[in-house]
Design goal:
Helix content of chain A: under 10%
Number of helices of chain B: 0
Largest interface: A-B, 30 and 27 residues
Order of helices and strands of chain A: EEEEEEEEEEE
Distance between the termini of chain B: 41 Å
Order of helices and strands of chain B: EEEEEEEEEEEE
Number of helices of chain A: 0
Radius of gyration of chain B: 14 Å
Largest sheet of chain A: 7 strands, mixed
Distance between the termini of chain A: 36 Å
Helix content of chain B: under 10%
Number of strands of chain B: 12
Shape of chain A: globular
Structural class of chain A: mainly beta
Strand content of chain A: over 45%
Radius of gyration of chain A: 13 Å
Strand content of chain B: over 45%
Oligomer: heterodimer
């Protein structure tokens, strides 16, 4: 049972480059989330999705885009990377809004 | 807006002793949920325990229990019989429902726990 998987584990980007962080879950959860964790801080919600084809902004969406074409996948796109986007990115999923969220292992991103 | 406060940046505890990690929250919602997550040095977020605002009894999961005091708006995590493997960062979080469905977790800044021999 893989749960929530994320790729890559670590990436270095130059300012202005773009990339896609991949997230896949095999639990058939409708709800998926992207968070970022800055050093010494808790997690902040970037985007979330309540099902295939439906996404919405969270607390810190600027500089990011998402899509949800399937139940399993919820990629996060960074356009024109900036040093302020240096962070650890976590993807999570839950079967319903009331239940706990299960997190992936995270992607560490460094923008130089 | 919801807010989670964890006032203990770091805590030390001796192995086999109990430790309490503090968490206070602020919300105007009547229905909410409180979570505790553990983040070891490897970085993953591990769900520990959940308490719903309407739950009358304090939640327990093995060595973890949640001391829920609704009137004081506190949701402290108690770890009994600490083990070396409990050394990690611990986050308190509150569930907030979003306008489009789904929910957001608002996290505190965390407490770094170190278990000593």
């Amino acid at each position: 049972n893989a749960g929530v998987t994320q790729t890559p584990k670590f990436r270095i980007l130059k300012i202005g480059q773009s990339m896609t962080l991949q997230c896949t879950q095999d639990m058939n959860h409708n709800y998926m989330y992207w968070y970022r964790q800055d050093p010494g801080m808790g997690l902040k919600l970037i985007y979330y999705s309540v099902g295939a084809g439906i996404t919405d902004k969270g607390e810190v969406p600027n500089g990011y885009n998402v899509s949800r074409s399937t139940t399993e996948d919820f990629p996060l796109r960074l356009e024109l990377a900036a040093p302020s986007q240096t962070s650890v990115y976590f993807c999570a999923s839950s079967p319903s809004p009331q239940e706990t969220q299960y997190f992936g292992p995270g992607t560490r991103l460094l923008v130089l | 807006a919801q807010k989670i406060t964890q006032t203990q940046p770091g805590m030390f505890v001796q192995e086999k002793e109990a430790v309490t990690l503090d968490c206070t929250y602020d919300t105007s919602d009547q229905s909410y949920g409180l979570f505790w997550y553990k983040q070891p040095s490897s970085g993953e977020m591990i769900f520990l325990i959940y308490q719903g605002s309407y739950d009358e009894q304090n939640a327990t999961e093995g060595r973890y229990s949640l001391n829920f005091q609704k009137a004081r708006k506190s949701a402290n995590l108690v770890i009994s019989a600490s083990q070396l493997g409990d050394s990690a960062m611990y986050f308190c979080a509150m569930r907030e429902f979003q306008r489009g469905g789904g929910n957001k977790l608002t996290f505190g800044t965390g407490t770094q726990l170190k278990v000593e021999l």
